[in-house]
Write a structure and sequence with these properties.
This is 2-oxoglutarate oxidoreductase. Keywords: Oxidoreductase. It holds the Pfam family TPP_enzyme_C. InterPro entries: 2-oxoacid:Fd_oxidoreductase (IPR051457), THDP-binding (IPR029061), TPP_enzyme_TPP-bd (IPR011766). The chain has helices at residues 3-14, 37-51, 85-95, 107-113, 115-124, 164-167, 173-178, 194-211, 227-230, 234-248, and strands spanning 57-61, 76-79, 100-106, 129-134, 183-190, 217-223, 252-256. The protein has one domain (35-256): Thiamin diphosphate (ThDP)-binding fold, Pyr/PP domains (Rossmann fold, 3-Layer(aba) Sandwich), CATH 3.40.50.970. Helix 2 packs across helix 8 (194-211) and helix 4 (107-113) packs across helix 5. By secondary structure, the protein is an alpha/beta fold. Strands 2-1-3-4-6-5-7 form a seven-stranded mixed beta sheet, sandwiched between helices.
């Protein structure tokens, strides 16, 4: 068996389909090797392309590692101040109710400086989709402790591990927003395997479809890795994520109305 044949068999066994989409631009991404952002970008791009809503989609990019998301997806974009993406998405959705509006935010952007913004947007039940990437650390600014950093996790600002007695406990944002009456769909996914990506794409499609029914916000959390911030290889990062993050941030749908 040739190497090419063996690779084709592996792809067939995993049911992986590599699609070229007009939504995903042919630009070299700036993300670190092993970063989950690139996979999530591709999943969002494929769903937008499959739904045929490229001309009707508006993204709101954050401050953080994914601040340049507009360089990779060929849709209309707006740039929000740190943590203010839900407010900007609210205005966009209300002014243009025929658009599919989403925010793309990290844990520092959404759960720290933007905590009030996301809580009130969810409580109001805005017709938007929120993509919340949780890698338990501030990636862009040097690997500091984030609101989602696990107890005992070492970061640049918690060199001896997070001490919950002095810094509080890791925030479970999905569980928090699921309790609000304005949220319609709340799920926590991942993107480390082909199977996980397929589940993520189903959640993305459901979120976009929900915006047309004007019945509340769709909140999609994606547990990801940060190889640079965690000081691990991409392979080690995936193992650490499964062994440490998944138990505290369990995958699955928390709310679906």
């Amino acid at each position: 068996m040739t190497a090419t044949t063996e690779l084709k068999n592996i792809i067939s066994e995993e049911n992986v389909v590599y699609k070229k989409t007009s939504v995903l631009l042919d630009n070299e991404m700036h993300y670190c090797p092993g970063c989950t952002h690139g996979v999530i970008h591709k999943a969002i791009a494929e769903v937008i392309d499959e739904m045929g809503i490229q001309e009707k989609t508006v993204g709101v990019s954050p401050v953080g590692c994914s601040v340049l998301a507009y360089n990779y997806l060929d849709i209309d974009w707006q740039q929000a101040a740190h943590g203010r993406a839900p407010a900007l998405a609210t205005a966009t959705s209300r002014l243009m109710p025929d658009k599919y509006v989403f925010t793309y935010q990290g844990d520092g952007d959404l759960a720290s400086i933007g905590c009030a913004e996301i809580m009130h947007a969810c409580n109001r039940g805005e017709s938007i989709v929120v993509f919340f990437v949780n890698n338990a650390i501030y990636g862009m600014t040097g690997g500091q402790m984030a609101p989602t950093t696990l107890e005992g996790q070492v970061t640049a600002t918690s060199p001896y591990g997070r001490d919950c007695h002095t810094t509080g406990f890791p925030m479970k944002m999905s569980e928090m927003v699921a309790m609000l009456p304005g949220t319609r769909f709340v799920t926590r996914e991942s993107a480390e395997t082909p199977g996980a990506v397929r589940k993520l794409k189903k959640a993305i499609r459901k979120g976009f479809e929900n915006t047309r029914e004007d019945k509340g916000i769709s909140f999609i959390e994606i547990v990801g890795t940060c190889s640079s911030g965690w000081k691990m290889s991409p392979v080690q990062s995936n193992v650490w994520m499964k062994e440490n993050m998944f138990p505290y941030y369990p995958l699955g749908t928390l709310k679906d109305e």
